[in-house]
């Protein structure tokens, strides 16, 4: 599917597209022909690197600052992308945060609660709300959820699980809101994926491997494959769906 150029003429916005899963998605959509704008919060150099890789491969790549905790900043970033690209065909709400120290319930700080919800939930809503103004028939939104939204295999994940469970409501609600305009809205729920957030050599990695039927971590590209399908013209009748890409961790 890497050689399929079914997104030529499409414009995409990938939040948190500078590294990890978001970078894999950005490169993948660009490889299929889309113009790609990718946002970052702190790591501008990585964002510029991904955008440059896209341009070097012959595509249009744009790095834009957008801290998901800053509502005005999110809106400004979306407007910048829409003005640069003319419109937005594809939005991938990927930016995310998890406190991997798995704090005990009584140790969860208000600051961490707010940050998790602001990035994972509120930021995704605000980005979709702003981007939808620039989307038309054939538009695609994919929200990156988590297998932890529907299955919590241990303590210390309450806030993150809550923030990602809300993505289901976001996906279903937006599918209803935007369906009449010919825009599909779906979510991908990754399992353990080897990234900075959740490295395959991290402290809980062996436990996580034991949770899926293959006994391994997934690769960021395996999430990008799923996103590539959901944003494709072939997925025009798929909306409100959740695609688990988790090696069967929820079985
Ligand atoms: P990484 O930690 O590797 O990357 C996180 C991304 O989110 C970065 O691009 C980062 O930008 C961005 N981000 C973090 N905080 C903010 C913020 N305040 N505003 C805007 N962007 C922000 O994570 P992954 O690639 O692993 O995760 C990508 C998505 O997949 C997330 O939604 C995550 O919850 C989800 N997921 C990941 C799993 C995994 O096992 N890796 C499993 C299930 C779901 P910057 O570098 O600029 O800070």
Task: Write structural notes for this entry.
This protein is about 40% helix and about 15% strand. It contains 7 helices and 7 strands. The protein has a 7-stranded parallel β-sheet with strand order 3-2-1-4-5-6-7, with helices on both faces. α2 links the parallel β2 and β3. α1 packs parallel to α2 and α4 packs parallel to α5. The chain is globular, with a radius of gyration of 17 Å. The protein starts with 10 loop residues before the first strand and ends in a 6-residue tail after the last strand. NADPH dihydro-nicotinamide-adenine-dinucleotide phosphate binds next to α1.
List its salient traits:
single chain; 251 residues; alpha/beta; Rossmann fold; seven-stranded parallel sheet; 7 helices; binds NADPH dihydro-nicotinamide-adenine-dinucleotide phosphate
What do we call the CATH homologous superfamily? NAD(P)-binding Rossmann-like Domain
Mean pLDDT: 97
**What hetero molecules are bound to the protein chains?**
NADPH dihydro-nicotinamide-adenine-dinucleotide phosphate
Q: Mind telling me which CATH architecture this is? A: 3-Layer(aba) Sandwich
Q: Going across the major beta sheet, what is the strand order?
A: 3-2-1-4-5-6-7
Number of strands: 7
| Range of strand content | 5-15%
Give the gist of this structure.
By secondary structure, the protein is of the alpha/beta class. The chain has a single domain, classed as NAD(P)-binding Rossmann-like Domain (Rossmann fold, 3-Layer(aba) Sandwich), CATH 3.40.50.720. It is 40% helix and 14% strand.
How are the SSEs placed, and which strands pair?
Layout: E1 11-14, H1 20-31, E2 35-40, H2 44-56, E3 61-65, H3 71-85, E4 90-93, H4 110-132, E5 140-144, H5 158-178, E6 184-190, H6 205-210, H7 220-230, E7 242-245
Helix pairs in contact: 1-2, 1-7, 3-4, 4-5
Bound molecules: NADPH dihydro-nicotinamide-adenine-dinucleotide phosphate.
NADPH dihydro-nicotinamide-adenine-dinucleotide phosphate binds at residues 16, 18-22, 40-43, 66-69, 94-98, 119, 144, 146, 190, 192-193, 195-198.
């Amino acid at each position: 599917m890497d050689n399929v150029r079914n997104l030529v003429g499409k414009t995409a916005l990938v939040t948190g597209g500078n590294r990890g899963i978001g970078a894999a998605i950005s490169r993948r959509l660009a490889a299929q022909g889309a113009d790609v704008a990718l946002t970052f919060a702190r790591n501008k150099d990585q964002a510029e690197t991904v955008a440059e890789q896209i341009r070097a491969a012959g595509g249009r790549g744009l790095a834009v600052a957008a801290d998901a905790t800053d509502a005005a900043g999110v809106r400004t970033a979306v407007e910048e992308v829409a003005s640069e690209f003319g419109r937005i065909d594809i939005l991938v709400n990927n930016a995310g945060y998890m406190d991997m120290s798995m704090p005990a319930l009584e140790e969860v700080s208000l600051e961490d609660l707010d940050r998790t919800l602001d990035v994972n939930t509120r930021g995704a809503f605000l980005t979709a709300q702003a981007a939808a103004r620039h989307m038309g028939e054939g538009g695609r939104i994919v929200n990156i959820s988590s297998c932890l939204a529907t299955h919590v295999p241990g303590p210390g994940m309450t806030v993150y699980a809550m923030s990602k469970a809300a993505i289901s409501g976001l996906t279903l609600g937006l599918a209803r809101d935007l369906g009449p305009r010919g825009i599909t809205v779906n979510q991908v729920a990754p399992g353990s994926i080897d990234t900075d957030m959740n490295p395959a050599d991290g402290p809980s990695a062996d436990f996580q491997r034991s949770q899926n039927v293959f006994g391994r971590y997934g690769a960021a590209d395996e999430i990008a494959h799923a996103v590539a399908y959901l944003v494709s013209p072939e997925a025009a009748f798929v909306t409100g769906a959740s695609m688990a890409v988790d090696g069967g961790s929820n079985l």
